[in-house]
Fold:
Amino acid sequence: MKLLNRLTALFRARAPRHDSSPHPETGPDGLDDRLPDELDALITREAYSWVVGQTIRRLGKTKHLFRLQWGHLFYTGLEGTSWRQVNLIHLVQLLAGEDRGTWSEKIGWYVDLHRADQEALEVLLASFEEASGRLTVRLHTKETYVQFPTDGYILKPVLPELYAAVALELPGQFHILQRTEVAHWGIDEDELLWTAYANLSDKREQIEVVEEKGDGFVLTSLLHKDYAAAFALDFGNHCSEWLGKMGAMVGLPNKGNVFIYPVTDPNVFNAAFTKMAEMINRHFQEGPSPLSNELYWFHHNRFERFPKIMEGHTLTYSIPNRLLAYLRTPLAHPAFFSDLKDNLLEGYWEGYYEYGQGFRAPLLGSRREFQLTLRSKAGQLEGTCVDEDHSGQAGVWGFVDRELISFIKKFPESPTQDIHYTGFFDAREVSFTGTWVIDEGNGQVCSGSWAMVKL
Structure:
C-alpha cells in the first residue's frame, strides 16, 4: 500500500485581528469597536457599531462606565468598583438570523435577559454547591483574553493555541469565571475544570451527530453552536464511540463543529485525510466563532497535532510519525508473544540516529551513536539514554504494540522538547529500525532515521 505522507490544501488565510494598532478604530464614546474575527462573516463593521450603540443605550448610557474589547462590552457603575459584561458576539449571532427591522426590539429583549442573568449569577457565585451543576467550558484562542480590562480568568491550555475557560451557564448567556469571583469557594481550579467537563457529558443528547460517507470511509460531525467543541475536548470519555482501533483523526475548526474520522482501515486513510483537511479549513474560514485549522490524532488518551507548514496561501499537513507507523503495521501478526515481551525489551540496547529533514551539512546525513537502558511492564517502557551530542542522560517513556515501538526522549537541558521515536521490531535480528521527529512548532519539523540492537 502506498501512503500519502504529506497533503497540501490551498485556501486564503484568515487575517489576524488581534495585533495592537496605534490608531484603533473607535465607535460610541470612543470605544474600540473593531469587528471581532467571530463576526467577520455575519455583520458589517457599521452594523456592528450600531448594535454596540443600541446596547449601551439600553443599559443606561448615563448610569455606567463602558469598555469594549473584542466582542465583550464591559460596564460598571459610575463608581467603577465591579465590572460586568455583555457578550456581543452571542448577541450578533442571534440577530444574524432575524430581520433587520426587529434588531432594536431583540437588543432590548437581550439586555433584559442579561439583567436577569446578572441576578442569577449573584446567586450562583454565592457558593460552589449552588454553582457546581451550572459549570461548563468555553473554548477560545488565547488572544480572546489578552486585552480584556480584567485578568485572572480560569484558563487552562488544552490544545496548541486553544484554552478552556471555566464558565457558568446562565439562562441567557455564558459567564467566564474570574479567580477573584470564586476564591471564597476554596475549590482547586483543576477540580472546577473537571466538574465542568463532567457537566458537558449531559449535553450529548443536544448535540446533533451527522455522518458523511466517502469512498470507503465515514466522517462524523458533531454539531451544536455552544457545546460541540467543548464537548469533544474530553474525547476519551465523551467520544469513545468514534474511536477506531488506531485512534481518531479530529478537527475543531469552530465552537459549533467537530469533525471525526475513526482510524481503522489504512487503505482508505488517505482519502479520509484529504477530506478532513478540506472540511476543517473551509469551516475555519467560513464558520462563526473560529477556533483552529489544526488537525489532531487522538490516541492513547492524548491529542497529537499534525505538523503543518504555511507558505503563502498553501498549507501543508504531515501525518504524525507514530500514526504513520501504525498505518504501516500489520496489527494482526505480532512479532513475539506478549509473555516474552517484557523479558525481551528490558536491558541494554545500542544504536545510532541519523540527521535528516531540517538539517544542513555537515549534520545532514551524519550519524551519532547512543546507548539505551530499558525497563518494561506489560509493554509500557521507561528508561534512560546517552548519546554523543548531549552531556547528560535523557529520560525515555513509551510503549510497544506488537512489532511497533514508540517512545519519547527528553534531555534535561531541553525539558520542553519531545523527540518522538517510532520503529518496528525485527525478530530475527532482535533489533528495531525507524524514524524520529521533533515538531518545533510554527511549521518547523526536524526528523531522521534510527536503529538499535539488543546487547
The radius of gyration is 26 Å. Confidence is low (pLDDT under 50) at residues 1-28, 331-340. Residues 338-454 form a domain with the Lipocalin fold (CATH 2.40.128.120).
